[in-house]
């Protein structure tokens, strides 16, 4: 991919560099309307390089930042939404997200409530790193939206019919965006071609993120569309990919269910983890424990 790659008529993917040693880039999308304006899906990370990559693609398309009419974020994570404030400042565009994501971002800005480390059975020497991870912001600096989206809403993109599909699980207000006429669905982190996204990564919720996620997978799996994900590369075969993701999570739930009575710490220690249990620390350890707790509490349908 050079500055951008044109996926379909008026739809361009832009690789946005990510800081840190995880995934190398996120994918932002520039969508043209029939009035010559652009709409951004997920501006990317909160770095000068990331915003530069996005605005470089805008320039390569022969437009200026003032041609950006709107920004819609699939979810609040910094690698997708972190650049929002900078792109909005450069363009004066409106910002849209799902109502639940706006609520989650506001709650996270006040700090994630610490999990009950006693109930999880966390040894005393591992508690400081977990409390430090809880205290580090994951959605800092995300502006409040100008308008919120609900499931089924059509975006205000003249000449196109992009519909918001609420797909909670990865975060409480995660959105996919479906352009039925063009056979496209922007999947954010809900469905990636090879990476299995973590669940429950948007703060505490009243519902079980795994149950929420599996319900959303069914909807997306039925779409006959080219998937435009938030990382990696566009792909086809949503039915197969969503089935594999479902099985991945259900297998995990069965693994957890095979440890009745253990604390979350004891169960997690016995599970298999990419890179091994001993490699987990700080935020990755917190995430592993939280996901183990979700699986323990999840009642398979
Ligand atoms: Zn994410």
Descriptive overview:
By secondary structure, the chain is α/β, with parallel strands linked by helices. It has a single domain (5-112, 140-258), classed as 4-Layer Sandwich (Metallo-beta-lactamase, Chain A), CATH 3.60.15.10. The chain has helices at 48-60, 78-81, 84-91, 99-109, 117-120, 127-135, 209-221, 238-257, 264-270, 282-297, and strands spanning 5-8, 11-17, 25-32, 38-41, 68-72, 94-98, 147-149, 162-166, 175-179, 184-188, 226-229. A seven-stranded mixed sheet has the order 1-2-3-4-5-6-7. Strands 8-9-10-11 form a four-stranded mixed sheet, with no helix packed on it. A hairpin with an 8-residue loop joins strand 8 (162-166) and strand 9. The model has no long low-confidence stretch (mean pLDDT 93). The protein binds zinc ion (ZN). Zinc ion binds next to loops.
The overall number of domains is 1
Main β-sheet, spatial strand arrangement: 1-2-3-4-5-6-7
Number of helices: 10
**Which stretches of 5+ consecutive residues score pLDDT under 50?**
none
Please name the CATH architecture.
Answer: 4-Layer Sandwich
What order do the SSEs take from the amino end to the carboxyl end, as H and E? EEEEHEHHEHHHEEEEHEHHH
Bound molecules: zinc ion
Kindly estimate the percentage of residues that lie in beta strands according to DSSP: 15-25%
The radius of gyration over CA amounts to 19 Å
Q: By CATH's scheme, which homologous superfamily applies?
A: Ribonuclease Z/Hydroxyacylglutathione hydrolase-like
**What CATH first level would be assigned?**
Alpha Beta
Report the average pLDDT across residues: 93
N- and C-termini, Cα separation: 42 Å
Net shape? globular
